[in-house]
Amino acid sequence: MPAPHFLTALSPRNRWLLGGVLLIGLVLAATLLRTPAKTAQVVQVARTDLTQTVVATGRVNAPVRLDIGSEVTATVLAVSVREGDTVPAGALLMQLSDAEARATLAQAQATLAEARARQGQLSTVAAPVANASLAQAEANLRNAEAEHRRATELVAQGFYSRQKLDDARRVLDTARSALAAARSQAQAQLPHGAEVVLAATRLAQAQAAVEAAQARLQRLSITSPIAAQVLARHVEPGSLAQPGKVLLSLASSEGLRLDAAVDEKHLALMAPGLAARAVADAYPGQGFDAALQWVSPAVDPARGTVDVRLSVPQPPAFLRPDMTVSVEMTVGQQANALVVDAGAVRGMDTPTPWALVLKDGVATRTPLQLGLRGTGVVEVTSGLTEGDLAVPATEKVAEGDRVKPASAGPLPLGGMGMGR
Known about the structure:
Helices cover 33% and strands 35% of the residues. By secondary structure, it is of the alpha+beta class. The chain has three domains: 36-63 and 255-420, Efflux pump adaptor protein, beta barrel domain (Elongation Factor Tu (Ef-tu), domain 3, Beta Barrel); 65-96 and 220-252, CATH 2.40.50.100; 100-218. Helix 3 runs antiparallel to helix 4. The longest helix has 59 residues, at 99-157.
């Protein structure tokens, strides 16, 4: 007995449902076949060495800037420097009138010489004289005491009158007073005596007066406290220098640095020690090396930037304070990285970036995980494989569209980096 046909084995209701499904499928297939594929530009995922950099604009700055003035009021006799001059530390910048200060110093030095002579006289003349006077007073006292004893005895025996004893007593009292004075004078000449202390005090005062006069004289010769470059000169010979008036402006000629502002979105990439390459706007063909030295702990809320400071180990000769420079800091490098054109990545700065990738000719939404970013390209760590074709966001292609690739354009490799 022959087997029953599949359709005849179904109930009429099931045969009707199956026919409807087949009809719908035929209609959809016909629709797809009638809908032409969109022609669109595509980019190809490839591998290449990738360097991520951050570029910022900044200025050359000096670690030390000084405004030079005068501590005293005096006439300017001479100015030894002009704008642009480089001077070593201690170099003479200008000379103020100093005739009065020199006279005061000469007077103080003469007083010092007198005090030193007085101190020398105490040890060579006054002390020996005082000791000799003391010895003489002691001898005179002994003689007076002997004479008083003898007069007392002779008066008692009736040989001398009472007047003679009174005279002997006056001589004894005088000798005792003279000895006390001689002892005081001798004690004053001792190392801790009054005369020695007084002479030492006068000597110290004279020395202090000389030092003060020398300091006043030195203030009239204005020198550079550091090795520096003269930025501005505000004085000429014959001018009157006064306290509080800026005469010269200096900037340290050593340890020039670069101060720049980086977009705060790059803050996580900033770390001291990053290598950098800088170019001065005035000398675009003469780049020089720099290194990130300091990152500000605060963000500028008005500009949305973070201030950074870079050191210049070997500043070129043309570098000057306040020059405008462009700085490119290398924040990451990856050899043989899997990269795609940045224009093909949608939602790049969101937590869920994605791309439209051609799969069997259909634009398919594909989640991505990103890594380093170069100029015009982005590293893809997950979601794509080498050779995949992605549709740039500039193409009018939606998810699910059939796409006919027009070309797989080259990747925009190289360049300055991520921008400011």
